[in-house]
């Protein structure tokens, strides 16, 4: 009798906890994304800092990624990948990735001071979480939507990108963001210059729905040139 009473009490407690958890969690739509995305989703942008380019530091101050090469990018074995300026090194750390003038692209490794060289054939525009390849103006980072989910952003349908191509509003979750909260997307725009153009075109809050939309190619010849890509590194990025 005592054991049965304890069991009933335990089950009742579990039911209360479950109900509270369900009440506190954001409701999901039929495709499994929070309903807050339908009217109040925050959108930010991220890019790959490139050695020699203009960029901005952690405080939003304009900087140029050049100067005396006093810092060393090292791999997990301590082998030197390249020497870069302090500003460049810190920006690569901040973004978690970086592009050298030589065309070598690096990603943070197992610590904040360890980098690894990326295979430009496999990941020509950078590496997302779980080994996902990033695709400019397609990839978004999210901490509460399943990887690979296609999303339609209403406010980006018809958006003219810096190189003149028109976006259809369709993006895909390929990444996560270490500094992001829920109900937020971080849009991969590849270049700082693209960020400067688009920051005045994309509103801070957008309408997002999970949708089986069509992924388009927005990469132009000038983008490939900026990314220091050889022909062999341009296959099958989708």
UniProtKB/TrEMBL annotation:
Keywords, comma-separated and alphabetical: Signal
Signal peptide segment: 1-25
Name of this protein: 3D domain-containing protein
Organism in which the protein naturally occurs: Mucor plumbeus
């Amino acid at each position: 009798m005592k054991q049965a009473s304890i069991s009933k009490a335990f089950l009742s407690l579990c039911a209360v906890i479950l109900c509270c958890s369900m009440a506190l969690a954001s409701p999901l739509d039929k495709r499994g994304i929070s309903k807050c995305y339908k009217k109040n989703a925050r959108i930010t942008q991220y890019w790959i800092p490139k050695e020699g380019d203009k960029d901005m530091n952690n405080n939003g101050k304009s900087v140029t990624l050049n100067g005396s090469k006093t810092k060393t990018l090292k791999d997990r074995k301590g082998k030197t990948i390249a020497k870069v300026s302090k500003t460049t090194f810190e920006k690569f750390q901040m973004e978690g990735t970086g592009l050298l003038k030589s065309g070598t692209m690096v990603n943070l490794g197992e610590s904040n001071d360890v980098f690894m060289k990326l295979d430009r054939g496999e990941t020509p525009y950078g590496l997302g979480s779980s080994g996902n390849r990033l695709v400019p103006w397609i990839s978004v980072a999210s901490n509460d939507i399943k990887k690979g989910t296609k999303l339609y952003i209403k406010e980006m349908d018809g958006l003219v990108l810096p190189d003149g191509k028109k976006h259809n509003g369709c993006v895909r979750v390929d990444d996560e963001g270490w500094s992001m909260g829920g109900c937020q997307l971080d849009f991969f725009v590849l270049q700082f210059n693209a960020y400067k153009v688009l920051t005045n075109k994309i509103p801070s809050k957008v309408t997002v729905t999970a949708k089986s939309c069509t992924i388009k190619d927005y990469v132009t010849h000038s983008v490939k040139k900026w990314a220091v890509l050889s022909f062999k590194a341009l296959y099958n990025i989708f």
